[in-house]
């Protein structure tokens, strides 16, 4: 079993690589990304290749050995794809198409688990989203992901690949530093205060979002890879389960878990650019398809925060006054 | 006012060119296609350019003079795109993307009327389709059209173009000869018997389809070009109005208009390939958006047949016994 993880240097990709190997110790795993954390780069249990997914030669080289299973997580994130249109089109659309074309050319019909996004939906935020809802992205990132979903479906229908597209909620809490995703603040408002730093959010506190933890998304990626294609049906897209939460609720939960002093490090700082994208994301989903297929979400926000604290070895002093 | 019609050699494009000029006599109109009917090629009222939309150099050349309005009707039809995957991807997807990219590069924000298709929908044929229904194409043609719809929306949102995507029902009655569209039989069963020839249909007679006449689709193209973008909204896609009709109803109407001898020239000839595509097209639409914007359909099938007979100067002898 040869497994290729594209975008394995990011925090979801890294965690996926490690957990996939734990569950599949006999798999031969190749990791590809622009950059890798040192721990992964020096791990003899992986074949680590550094390169740019946006450059065609890398796709050719990576596919040459005909991996049986490909996790495709490489992407220019939402804020960056909005600000740098060409880069987003090159990586999110053209490179993904090239990957599919190369699979078609090789003819070995690999299984692909693609990181799509709930950011493909947009517009009326009161609607309840299912897989039957028309994607109406209000960002170039969402447009590019929606297009690749369509391509994955058609290439699967024709037997060129065996794809499953997981539409990811906003993943929180991401460890590390803020990134260029427009949803980055949904991690910052938990992560930074726990590290004794200030954080801000750009929307009204009652704005709601559809979130999932890194732990659950990695579990869902591994689960997707194991599913029989027949169970998924002709539409290979799956809106992952999540939690609908307001920013205020996240702050309240942080306060419950880590104390009032920590929660007070968060402030409201409106940002029109971020609002123009994140407030078009509908936060209400009916994930019956995902639920029936065995995909899972977190129990609640407190559990998400507690898991983050445990995984990152953060010391909490609740007697901080 | 400089107008460019891409795919102007086809029967809808030709008719659009002629009727658009009638209504806009001062417009400078360039026609582009692989082939043209002689009448159009020698018409001094048009600039006629022969070339392949799939070749990038033509798009560059055509766009150089910065047309204010572009009708984009060039396509590899459904049956052909299903049988020749690469050709469909090249023309329907890549060339359309190249057109959009060239517009972005030139920066003059042309208005584009794009011939999309109701073939982007698929699956449960009992559902009632609106613009909020997720496209789930069961053909490569439908996939390619759905992707260009998404691109047209994003390029419009960003101000690179001002697009309106008309999702066409099956156009019937097409004059001329059968083509490689999987829906070609829906014209053949009217056209061929009226010309004294046999025709067949590949589905059960109670199978229903969503149809529109050439007359109405041309009118709707011209109407789309005149609409204020603000009226259309963020989603530039419009499912055109039409009629939901069974094959049997079309045969019955032909018999009413042209007699029983004519109608008896039609026979049932099942075809698994055609069924695998056309039977995935939902025939029920709620076209409130199109209706409110002033798009129109035919009154009934008899009117469609009578218009076809009049336009093609066909002689009907109802005393044929």
UniProtKB/TrEMBL annotation, chains A, B:
A molecular function (GO) term: oxidoreductase activity
Keywords: Carbohydrate metabolism, NADP
InterPro entries, per the entry: DenD (IPR050005), Epimerase_deHydtase (IPR001509), NAD(P)-bd_dom_sf (IPR036291)
Ribonucleoprotein as UniProt keyword: no
NAD-dependent epimerase/dehydratase domain location: 3-224
SUPFAM superfamilies to which the protein is assigned, alphabetical: NAD(P)-binding Rossmann-fold domains
Cross-referenced Pfam families: Epimerase
Coiled-coil regions, chain positions: none
Superkingdom in the source lineage: Bacteria
NCBIfam families per record: ErythonDh (NF043036)
Listed name of the protein: Nucleoside-diphosphate-sugar epimerase
Phylogenetic classification of the source organism: Bacteria, Pseudomonadati, Bacteroidota, Cytophagia, Cytophagales
């Amino acid at each position: 079993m040869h497994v290729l993880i594209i975008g394995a240097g990011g925090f979801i990709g890294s965690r996926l690589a490690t957990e996939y190997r734990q569950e599949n110790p006999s798999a031969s795993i190749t990791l590809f990304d622009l950059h890798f954390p040192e721990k992964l780069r020096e791990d003899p249990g992986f074949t680590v290749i550094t390169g740019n997914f946006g450059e065609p030669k890398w796709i050719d080289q990576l596919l040459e050995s005909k991996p049986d299973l490909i996790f495709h997580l490489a992407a220019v994130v939402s804020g960056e794809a909005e600000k740098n249109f060409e880069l987003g089109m090159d990586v999110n659309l053209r490179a993904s198409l090239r990957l599919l074309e190369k699979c078609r050319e090789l003819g070995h019909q690999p299984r692909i688990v693609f990181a799509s996004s709930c950011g493909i939906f947009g517009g009326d935020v009161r609607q309840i989203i299912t897989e039957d809802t028309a994607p109406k992205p209000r960002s170039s990132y969402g447009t590019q992901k929606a297009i690749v979903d369509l391509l994955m479906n058609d290439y699967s229908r024709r037997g060129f690949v065996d794809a499953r597209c997981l539409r990811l909620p906003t993943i929180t809490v991401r460890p590390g530093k803020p990134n260029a995703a427009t949803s980055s603040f949904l991690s910052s408002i938990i992560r930074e205060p726990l590290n004794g730093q200030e954080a801000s959010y750009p929307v009204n506190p009652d704005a709601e979002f559809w979130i999932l933890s890194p732990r659950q998304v990695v579990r869902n990626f591994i689960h997707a890879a194991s599913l029989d294609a027949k169970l998924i049906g002709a539409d290979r897209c799956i809106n992952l389960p999540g939690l609908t939460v307001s920013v205020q609720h996240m702050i309240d939960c942080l306060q419950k878990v880590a104390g009032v002093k920590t929660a007070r490090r968060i402030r409201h700082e409106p940002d029109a650019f971020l609002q123009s994208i994140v407030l078009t994301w509908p936060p209400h989903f009916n994930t019956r398809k995902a639920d029936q297929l065995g995909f899972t979400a977190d129990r609640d926000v407190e559990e998400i925060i507690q898991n983050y604290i445990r995984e990152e070895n953060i010391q909490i002093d609740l007697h901080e006054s």
